[in-house]
Amino acid sequence: MMRIIDGHCDALYKMFENPVIDFYDSVAVGLDVSYAKMKKSNVKIQFFAIYLPERITVPKFDHYLEYINIFYQKITCDGRVRLIKNRDDLHTVWNSESIGAILTVEGADAIQGNPLFTRTLHHLGVRFIGVTWNYGNWAADGILEPRQGGFSRHGKSFIKDCDDLGILLDASHLSVAAFWDLAAASARPFVATHSNAKALCGHPRNLDDNQLRELIRRDGRIGVTFVPWFVDGGQASIDGILRHIDYIGALGGERQLVLGSDFDGISRTIPGLEHAGQYGNLVDALSKRYSNVQVERFLYGNWYSYLERHLPVH
Ligand SMILES: [Zn+2]
């Protein structure tokens, strides 16, 4: 079975909310992304997002530390899953039996414009940051923020800090203005880890053609996501996901298309693609429509080449 790289999940959020959940339990009740499910589907690299729940009205750096503690204590505790911080780690994991994990932040709210916090997150292994969730913060506006502004002055210097440190930026959830501010301010090819094509499904979380073309032009990555509301407004199917892949491919994005499931971040799922143990159904559907080389690109090759090019060397 082909390898899979998935660019977004919220398993850490579920483990933060419910400390009883055991990632390594063979059943791992409550988790879409568990060790057993990843093994079943040959998920080789999984991005794990630090997403603070909305009930935390004053996000603090301590909250990030609590998540990072869960990650190290409960996921990368014994070598079965290993944190990927650089290209050396990427190669080591790829040639081993271990699963690789990439640590990401979704919502930079608790960084509060403090470069020491950004640097400390980098030290602890964070390699991707989505600057906002749906609403605005000190750095930028999210896609559901009524003001629909772009990046603040502090937010723009945060982009530079991330570029300099080697933290890659994620445009999923950004307002349209913030997306274009990021495009103008960042020297690196950024990504959208979990967003689909707005032309096929008009949800605000999806990307319009100009945004998709910009990500393609810069050789960033576009993570096709399994959130039913972003696939076709609710009655989603695996075929619906394929329509987004077809569409983005037709725009010229065959080398930029990647997966960003949003497993554990969604209350409804697509039939046959309800958790990380069910990628086989997606692989079967893709294989009917695309060549082996193309399917490999979508499932892992495009993510791998991006990581290989943009993670720090050591
Ligand atoms: Zn999200």
Notes on the structure:
This protein has 314 residues and is α/β, with parallel strands linked by helices. It has 12 helices and 9 strands. Strand 4, helix 5 and strand 5 form a beta-alpha-beta unit. The protein is globular, with a radius of gyration of 18 Å. It binds zinc ion. Zinc ion (ZN) binds next to loops. The site of zinc ion has 4 residues, from loops.
- CATH architecture descriptor text: Alpha-Beta Barrel
Structural domain count: 1
- In DSSP terms (H or I, runs of 4 or more residues), the helix count works out at 12
Bound ligand species: zinc ion
Instruction: Please give the share of residues in helix.
Output: 40-55%
Protein name: Membrane dipeptidase
Pfam family, one: Peptidase_M19
Organism: Paenibacillus allorhizosphaerae
InterPro entries: Pept_M19 (IPR008257)
Key descriptive features of the protein:
single chain; 314 residues; alpha/beta; TIM Barrel; six-stranded parallel beta sheet; three-stranded parallel beta sheet; 9 strands; 12% strand
